[in-house]
Design a protein that fits this description.
Distance between the termini: 43 Å
Number of helices: 7
Mean pLDDT: 81
CATH architecture of the largest domain: 2-Layer Sandwich
Number of domains: 2
Strand order of the largest sheet: 2-3-5-6
Strand content: 15-25%
Order of helices and strands: HHHHEEEEHHEEH
Length: 200
Amino acid sequence: MDIINVFLQTLSILNFSFPIFQSINTPFFTLHSSFLCTFAVESTIINNMNREQDNLQSLGKKTEYKFGYTPEVLETFDNKHPENDYWVRFNCPEFTSLCPITGQPDFAEIRINYLPGKRMVESKSLKLYLFSFRNHGDFHEDCVNTIMKDLIKLMEPKYIEVIGLFTPRGGISIYPYANYGQPGTKYEQMAEYRLLHHDL
């Protein structure tokens, strides 16, 4: 509801900066509170309609956490600017998984960067998806590649890269990096270039 806050701030500035507004009891200023309430309700209805149109099941509802690897929770919505190339980045600093050998917990920051195609991943569903790794046993490299492949299958991005910054275990930290560009496009060349020059 940022637009409502901006509107209220604008009204306050006008009221305090220009005394004429303090002496004029116009219907506009008398009814602006009612207008904002109506606007808020209408905005909520519109947002709910947009969520229903995108068939989003998690957003705006009670959170149900899955305690096993569950890629089915991932959801997408339409990219309103598919003609543009632009970056979307997710920083996920509280990722946890289990070592498949010892069962000990692993901790990492997962960074996901992508150029969206026609569809985009919904952030709450992504959070639930990453949480589902909590009791999942996989090596660091497998986690990163699995995340990338699941997101490719989900939304067919133009380009995507996933980085795992895992905390040290036994004095060694592991930072797997995986990327992908749509075959036969400039994004495939981009993926090759970024992979060859990663971390140089």
